[in-house]
Amino acid sequence: MTISLYISTLEADSGKALLALGIIEQALLKTTKVGFFRPLIKGTSTGDKDKDIELMITHFNLKQNYEDSYGLLESEVMQLINQHKHEKVLEKIITKYKALEANCDFILCECSDYLGQSLALEFDLNLEIVHNLGCPIILLTNGYQKNIEEITSTIQIALDAYQEKNCQIMGIVVNKVVSEQINELNQVLASEYDQFNYLLSVIPYTPKLENPRVREVAAQLQASLIDGEKKLDNLVSDYLITAMQVSNALNWLEDGQLIITPGDRGDIILAMLQAEHSANYPSLAGILLSGGFPPEPSIMKLIDGLAHPLPILSVETDTYTTATQAKEIKGSIVAGDIEKIRLSLELFAEYVDGSKLEKRLGEIKSHGITPKMFIYNLHQQAKSLKKHIVLPEGGEPRILQAVSFLLSQGMVDLTLLGTPKDIEGSIRKHGINLDVNTLNIITPNKHPKFLEYAETFYELRKHKGMTLDAAKDYMRDVSYFGTMMVECGDADGMVSGAVHTTQHTIRPALQIIKTKPGFSLVSSVFFMCLESHILVYGDCAVNPDPNPEQLSEIALASAETASIFGIEPKVALLSYSSGSSGKGEEVEKVRQATAIAQQRQPELELEGPIQYDAAVDPAVAAQKLPGSKVAGQATVFVFPDLNTGNNTYKAVQRETGAIAIGPILQGLKKPVNDLSRGCKVEDIINTVAITAIQAQNICILRLKDEEGVRSPD
Questions:
Q1: What is the DSSP code string of 355-403?
Q2: What pLDDT, on a 0 to 100 scale, did the predictor assign at position 44?
Q3: 407 shares its domain with 505
């Protein structure tokens, strides 16, 4: 049975996207078979796509086509109604809904936008739709610039209308409430509706979600772009009309402003561009030139020579008209706007009663651990015993965006390596929600332990010809300094590689931290998050052609990693043949590795050599390796060489849409993990969480060893 919910509003700009993002995020903890459906949308069959549909499909990688995600266009609805074919409207919407429902465990429906000319007709139509679909309703209303009485009156009118149609009300959410009203409104809602066991939530007004990006301003004003295309995603927090003398205008600048000035004011254009590059002035969103005047050729020549200029837009309208129109623009949450999406999810998590929603979503039949659930578990496990992680690439914007999330969630303690000036500059330049004064920042050569670290490194490497002066030079390198922090217990783990190469991350770890007892090499795994389960692939990133002894180590280390993260290890050592049927040097290598691993850990379930199909398919396993405890149910896959492993994980990732988390390094005494230089913010967050969990495991094992030493014989 498919579970469903219907987000219903009474007016435009209620913040449906925020609520939809949060609900789908929570539903994906239960199942990957999640759908998003809008009965009515604006536009034409050839026009722009609906932003909310694009947002949900793209951000959550929902397995549905755009055309399957809505019932009818508004123009089609009006045509049918004008033809007195009201029933045909409902029939077409229900048909498309049922087609989507057939492939989903959960569907979230979102009502229309209330931007048409007849709001009463639109509300009645939404009411009729939800009645026929039979979905429980979450009533969402906009509390901005309303008093308490106006808000509650709006809610009651809607409830009366729904109850008259015998619709099931599940919850009431009031969005965009000013902070001064939140406590009182919560009390009023509780006194009125607690008896019905509704989900009751009040979400504060958050201007950042409504502030437009510069590209949205450009689109809605039909402005031409003069320069600064790379910064069109700058967030506009306010507008400043600038026609006064430059010396006076500079005093009015604030973060995120879009400067509006006539296009012939070259002095102001130059001053704003210079202010943007000055550490003494706030970071601006862009410049909007009015009057249709292009900058003079000499000004354009200067702009063309700038490496990263502000976005500069030009419109034909006069300054007053331009400013009036610009202030009417409201931003939206669109696909790819990670900052707004993350803020929406944080607001949802903080202000929406998850336990009430969980009760409804708890009816969804689970089909195993989903990728969202695995990642959620990672974050919760990291929080359970906070660890201290050092990030050597402190000025990298993606690192800082990840830091903002990690600190807001209380997941880990962090140290950034770099200079406060560079890190503050990066925060300002990219508009990241961080206060540099609250960050723990270390500049290696200015740290009190710099000399101590250098001397320690010298002692570790003097047998290789290391001198103390050379050791000092190494400690100025953030990768070496960060690794030494981990080795000396001043951090529990390190994550690097967003800027540096894999070798730059791993080499210091091999020289300083070294491998743990019983292991001679460092290897890696990827967590492959498939639709309904998680697999472990190793080694897909580090060792090109391991010998039998090394391959056995990779198998044992991969099994240990799987166990740490709650995956029961059933290890398949892969080859092009299964069991004793095949011959050849490569098959023999895998056979020997399996024997060595079984000898070292007899209790571990291993099988090898084994083909991939026999490892995952019970029917094939029954034919090729009957009686095997691993065949057909393997969870850990060990590839015979890097060529096979790297290509396989990428093929699976691309062809199935699996999320690949990694590479995760294993075999070191203390955790150090490498990022891809093309990593996303989410990759950094997950890798930091994994590193923290590895550090937790080391701490737990050490405590067990200490207890064993203290215990009497």
A1: HHHHHHHTTSPP-S--HHHHHHHHHHHHHHT--EEEES-TT-HHHHHHH
A2: 54
A3: yes
Q: Where are the alpha helices (DSSP H) in 61-145?
A: 74-82, 86-101, 119-133
Q: 250 lies in a domain?
A: yes
Low-confidence ranges of the chain (pLDDT < 70): 1, 43-47, 114-120, 360, 364-368, 705-713
Cα 672 to Cα 675: distance, rounded to the nearest angstrom = 10
What tokens does 580 get? 């004793």
CA–CA gap between residue 338 and residue 343 (Å, rounded): 8
Where is the domain boundary, 300, 327, 354? 327
Q: Beta partners for 436?
A: none
CA atoms within 13 A on the CB side of 695: 29
Contacts of 19 (CB under 8 A, 6+ apart): 7, 138, 140, 173, 175, 348, 352
Residue 402's nearest CA partner among 697, 21, 684 is 684
Q: What is the pTM of this model?
A: 0.71
User: 439 and 392, same structural domain?
Assistant: yes
Q: What is the pLDDT of residue 339?
A: 87
Helix then strand then coil, in percent of the chain rounded to 5, is: 50, 15, 35
CB atoms near residue 407 (< 10 Å): 17
- CB within 8 A of 480, min separation 6: which ones? 457, 474, 508, 512
C-alpha 432/C-alpha 438 separation (Å) is: 14
| Same domain for 448 and 390 | yes
Residues 33 and 111 in one domain: yes
Q: Which residues pair with 73 in a beta bridge?
A: 41
Q: Is residue 705 a part of any domain in this protein?
A: no
Which tens digits make up the pLDDT trace of 621-637? 998 998 899 999 999 99
Amino acid 691: pLDDT? 95
> 318-353: string of b/e by CB count within 10 Å (b at 16+)?
ebeebbeebeebebbbbbebebbbbbbbebbeebbe
Single out the residue in 462, 486, 512 at which a domain terminates: 512
Q: Give which of 471, 511, 512, 463 is closest to 491, Cα–Cα.
A: 512
Q: At 279, which CATH number?
A: 3.40.1390.20
Residue 492 lies in a domain: yes
Indicate the SS3 state at residue 21.
helix
Residue 459's identity, in one-letter code, is: E
Count the domains in the chain: 4
CATH of the domain at 453: 3.40.50.10950
Question: Which structure tokens are listed for 255?
Answer: 């973060």
Burial label for 706, CB within 10 Å (0-12, 13-18, 19+), is: exposed
The domain in which residue 278 lies consists of 214-327
**Residue 420 buriedness (CB in 10 A; 0-12 / 13-18 / 19+):** middle
DSSP state of 148: H
> What are the tens digits of pLDDT across the range 583-642?
788 899 999 999 999 999 999 999 989 999 999 999 999 989 988 999 999 999 999 999
